[in-house]
Amino acid sequence: MYGKLAQWDDTIVALATPPGVGAIGVIRVSGPEAYPIMDALFPSKRLADQASHTAHVGVLKDGPVALDEVVLTLFKGPRSYTGEDVIEISAHGSPYVQQRIIQAIVNRGARIAKPGEFTQRAFLKGKLDLAQAEAVADLIAANSEASQKAALHTIRGGFSAELRQLRNQLLSFSALIELELDFSQEDVEFADRSQLYTLLREADGITKQLLDSFSLGNVIRNGVSVAIVGKPNAGKSTLLNALLNDERAIVSDIAGTTRDTIEEVLNIEGVLFRLIDTAGIREHTADVIESIGVERSMEKIERADVVVVLFDAVNETPASLQQDWAFLEEKKSKVLWVGNKIDAGELQQLQEKWRPLSQALLISAKTKNQIDLLKKRLVDLVISGAVNTEGTIVTNARHYQALQKVAQSIHDILSGLDRGLPGDLIALDIRRCLHFLGDITGEITNEDQLDYIFSKFCIGK
């Protein structure tokens, strides 16, 4: 099914922890020769005779030369991550020592693993399906609680279980419909069309829910780009510092102090926001460097997921503000209007002044007044409520594209049933739907696709 990938019968080795100096480094060995190779390097005892899932302390030796005192953890296939014989070597964290150990293992017949090859073998051995394997990479790259929970849910099989149940039910109907083709002369129906119709309606709902979750999944996986824009001296850098609770950006009363964009990351309620403090935007400036900064600010606005328009609530007016930023209405759907410097005026008068711009939030970046409310507004704007990662959230663009094709196939089957199409055409649409479902979990795949997916993993995983 997987071409030459299914013939893998060699032994691989790689450093499983990040390269560099540390207290401990873990080297992973997997394959049929894992135990013979390590027995040759570990004279303390015969590892092949030891029980699986046990740890052993001793000295690794390359002939007469001692390499390191290590702890070996044994996992015998199929009760291992890859489904093969696996040995993990916990060595001291010297890159030189680790390289000596890896080279000794290679000299005895192993080869250096390719990126993601351990997880790829786990997939080929049936330890993980493809969606779960991809979630391993997502978990390694998780940079927030939300992304961690979403990846763990998929690794534990939550996403795959939903797809597998749907696929099995469709397979059953497909088999019955295709059986009808063998008895076409008798004009019999083995598949209950009403049950199929009910199943497809349920499947359509499940698929839509998964597709709808991708917008949240994209936020969880990639974070949200937030451009803070406004006129010079509106307080953008002060706001960035207030949000970060750190003096990150230079603040002064001189307009145009920020000449280039400054980017920082902020975690709010499990969602990563990439905050971009842009140069103040004004129509005319003789300063060449400031002009370049303004151009870059406009580029950041184009690319940002959210734009925070910061204005001087004391000195600007609703009419001039909306005129200056009218172009945003066409470019961006997610805009937050934030009036700054309420500490410099009388709050009640400012609230009355900005009542026409009802969605505006009035704050003081200098005193951090209403900063927590601004953070809540940011979260609500991008996820429309609390992050709930207990259910399945689609974070993978490949899965999303496949689910779009699943949804279209379901609609084609329903349309065929409504029009009374013959069984052979219905069966064709069902097989197409099954193909796209199998593409997500790996029941349907090819060597090039697997190589591409696993090449994005780190070496040693």
What does this structure look like?
The chain is α/β, with parallel strands linked by helices. It has three domains: 3-127, 2-Layer Sandwich (Gyrase A, domain 2); 140-219 and 396-442, Four Helix Bundle (Hemerythrin (Met), subunit A), CATH 1.20.120.430; 223-383, 3-Layer(aba) Sandwich (Rossmann fold). Helices cover 46% and strands 17% of the residues. The protein has 16 helices and twelve strands. The chain has helices at residues 34-41, 95-107, 117-124, 130-140, 145-155, 158-182, 193-222, 236-244, 288-303, 318-324, 328-331, 347-353, 371-383, 397-418, 423-441, 447-455, and strands at residues 12-15, 22-30, 54-62, 65-75, 86-93, 111-112, 224-229, 262-268, 271-277, 306-312, 335-340, 361-362. A six-stranded mixed beta sheet has the order 3-4-5-2-1-6. It has a six-stranded mixed beta sheet with strand order 8-9-7-10-11-12, with helices on both faces. Strand 8 and strand 9 form a beta hairpin. The longest helix is centred in the middle third of the chain and has 30 residues, at 193-222. The protein is flat and about 85 Å long. The relative contact order is 0.13.
CATH class of the largest domain: Alpha Beta
Radius of gyration, CA atoms, in whole angstroms: 30 Å
* Name of the CATH homologous superfamily of the largest domain: P-loop containing nucleotide triphosphate hydrolases
Main β sheet profile: 6 strands, mixed
Number of strands: 12
Structural class: alpha/beta
Shape: flat
Calculate the terminal CA-CA distance, rounded to whole Å.
Answer: 23 Å
Please indicate the percent range of residues in DSSP E strands (runs of 2 or more): 15-25%
Number of domains: 3
